[in-house]
Task: inverse folding
């Protein structure tokens, strides 16, 4: 690359067997498609009734009109965090994967060097490397003012199937960047199991298509968020086709915001 940005090759996101299949079918391999870096400059910044409209943007509706400060417990590539900051929320986002975290920092440094983007972000976006549960616990202990809302967007996988819903999730799935993220997080050197599976009470194939919820790691995160002193709402983002969340006993479901592909479950701690 000709600049100093941290780039990752999307080649890493595509298993060799899949690449061979694509080549056999005469399709251009994702492996040579393009390198990837965190870039907040490509987020649509139209105001008014555009992408940054807090009345229309599903993320903002889920976070709530009274929310000012957000803790994004699952930063990933920082898209939701940056979008929220551009809409005027104050955002601290946690990411536990060191590579992803370094790329977020790199993306933020470049964003701040871009005058118009930096102005639009208004210093409202920051990232912290670490486990969100630990960061929340430390903040509770040291008197850091709590965020108004906590956003949780774990990696979801349809690997164990969930019946009729499966097709929808498959089509919602990965742009190269998401595929790259899940490959990174599943790498043997990754210290943390990061991809949650969608369980179904309807059995291994989920034929009942009934309510199901995230696995233990996600439950732990939701629980830590709900127990955080002073937090008004916890927003869980997931593929729309994933089975609905059953609210934990220490929370009440306030709202659900849905788009074609995504569903936000809004929980209020009891
Ligand atoms: C689906 S991605 C989030 C995508 C993000 N919302 C975006 O807009 O780019 C989930 C990310 O959360 C991170 N993650 C999962 N559990 C975490 C935890 N307990 N603490 C910090 N990061 C976590 C994973 O490493 C992964 O990068």
Result:
């Amino acid at each position: 690359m000709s600049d100093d940005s941290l780039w990752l090759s999307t080649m890493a996101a595509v298993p060799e067997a899949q690449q061979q299949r694509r080549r056999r079918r005469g399709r251009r391999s994702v492996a040579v498609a393009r390198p990837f870096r965190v870039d907040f400059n490509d987020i649509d910044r139209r105001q008014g009734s555009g992408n940054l409209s807090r009345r229309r943007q599903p993320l903002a509706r889920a976070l709530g009109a009274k929310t000012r400060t957000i803790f994004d417990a699952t930063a990933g590539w920082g898209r939701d965090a940056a979008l929220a900051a551009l809409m005027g929320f104050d955002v601290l986002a946690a990411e536990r994967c060191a590579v992803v975290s370094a790329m977020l920092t790199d993306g933020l440094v470049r964003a701040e060097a871009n005058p118009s983007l930096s102005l639009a972000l208004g210093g409202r976006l920051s990232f912290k490397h670490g486990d969100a549960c630990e960061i929340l616990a430390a903040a509770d202990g040291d008197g850091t003012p709590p965020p108004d809302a906590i956003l949780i967007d774990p990696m979801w996988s349809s690997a164990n199937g969930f019946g009729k819903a499966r097709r929808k999730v498959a089509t919602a799935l990965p742009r190269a960047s998401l595929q790259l993220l899940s490959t990174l997080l599943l790498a043997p050197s990754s210290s943390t199991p990061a991809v949650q599976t969608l369980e179904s009470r309807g059995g291994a194939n989920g034929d009942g298509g009934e309510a199901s919820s995230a696995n233990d790691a996600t439950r732990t995160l939701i629980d830590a968020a709900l127990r955080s002193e002073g937090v008004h709402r916890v927003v869980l983002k997931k593929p729309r086709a994933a089975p609905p969340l059953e609210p934990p006993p220490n929370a009440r479901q306030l709202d659900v915001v849905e788009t074609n592909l995504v569903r936000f479950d809004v929980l209020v701690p009891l």
Observations:
- The chain has nine helices and eleven strands.
- The longest helix spans residues 98-113.
- The longest strand covers residues 251-258.
